[in-house]
Design goal:
This protein has 160 residues and is mainly alpha-helical. The chain has seven helices and no strands. 69% of the residues lie in helices and 0% in strands.
Amino acid sequence: YAMLLSLIFLIVLVAAIVGFVFRHEIKTNFESNLNLALKDYNVTADRHSEAVDTIQRTLHCCGVQNYSDWERTEYFSQRGIPRSCCKSQNDCSEEDLKDPNKAKLKVFVDGCFFLVTSTMESKMSVVAGISFGIACFQLIGIILACCLSRYITNNQYEMV
């Protein structure tokens, strides 16, 4: 049991170290994937499009760096900026969303990449604290399992 807990502890420790060391690559991959999701954005029930809409609605942002990122997409030439970028759903018309100058007043102007990464970094202290707490419980479990094992093997010949 102690060996199994030690193995789980080492796996969690390695995952945390790898996540910390490669955090810049994770950001770069996230940015490129977000750009790709914008490029391939459509109105159908595509998971990537739904994810972009959810991020934009939840974080009150639009595009990767800013709302003008949508101007370089095929979706913009057909329908303009998506409605998920609108500050108020009632005040956004399709004509406003097709004109970048009018859209600037109606949509969120901040990009999503910075907001997502800053939100993740602000929550990292909570994740690290919870992980540290779990690791402490695992270490206590490992120590107690070793003590129990030693107690059982030492008293093996005294049993009647």
